[in-house]
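Encode chain A's predicted structure.
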Amino acid sequence: MIESHSFFMRMTLGMNKPLSRKLDLNLLDLFDAIYRTRNLTAAGKALGLSQPAMSHALARLRDMYGDPLFVRLAKGVEPTPFADELVGPVSQALQILAQTLEKGSFVPATARRVFRLAMTDIGEHTFLPRLIRHLQHHAPQLCVETIATSASPEELAQELSKGTIDLALGAINPDIAGVRSRILFSDVYACVARPSTVPRGTLSLAEFKRARHVVPNVAGTNHSILIDRMLVANGMSDRVVARVTHFLAIAELVSDTDVVAIMPRNLALSVARRWGLCHFAPPVQMPGYDVMVYWHKRHDQEPGNTWLRQVIVELFHGGPHPARTKARTRGGSIR
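Encoded structure for chain A:
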């Protein structure tokens, strides 16, 4: 703590002026070097300054603080009482400024952090098992919290920007300024039904149009939009018997009734295997879609966010199974 009245008076002079006009950081480095070495020649050598440059800078330093700061001795210099009071704050200030130039670090093996990931139940089904296995091995003290994807791209962008969500995963495509995205894999849609509903293992277009359908009504994803467009284009809107808010609820519904459902192929393969259902290609044209990881540009360089993005890309580019193809990036690098 600085107790000297004279120091306080000097530091409060000219408070109405911008700090940059009162203070030269180069001179603080000079002060620190002279105080540590007690020798002008040695301090000049450490700073790469010639003797004339040192003399000129010291004169400016003395003028800045209104104190001699250092007095010459037979060998070297001796700090004045004011310089003794000044050295602590100056050293702390230089250290703080140096720290602002240092980027933070993230050490997975020891980090304690909760990562919040926005995704649907499909995302939880697709991403979490492999991701958690990886984290248990490489980052055992991390926790993943999943959050329902926001209904609107604007809301998602705000949550990513504020950091209330670290990353979002899925077929979302929020074309919002500031949101970065990386394509993990591309997929298509498939139909699922119980074997008694599709005895041949597939349906003709006419049979498909006559069938009763259960469709997703999942917020924060493009799947519902694309499936609804297909139904309207084929005059099938009146064949919908149920709309559900979770894809995984469809599997049990299909296994107990004669309905047909369209869902992402990767999910269709999984639920068909687990529930003993048939899966087949839709007899209508449907576009494919991209599954992506999203983040906000504000967190491009944040070490933890960067690390988790890299992990997700390594685990899932090319598909939810071991990587097969190189991922593409939109709106910025994965760094």
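Residues 189-280 form a domain with the D-Maltodextrin-Binding Protein; domain 2 fold (CATH 3.40.190.10).
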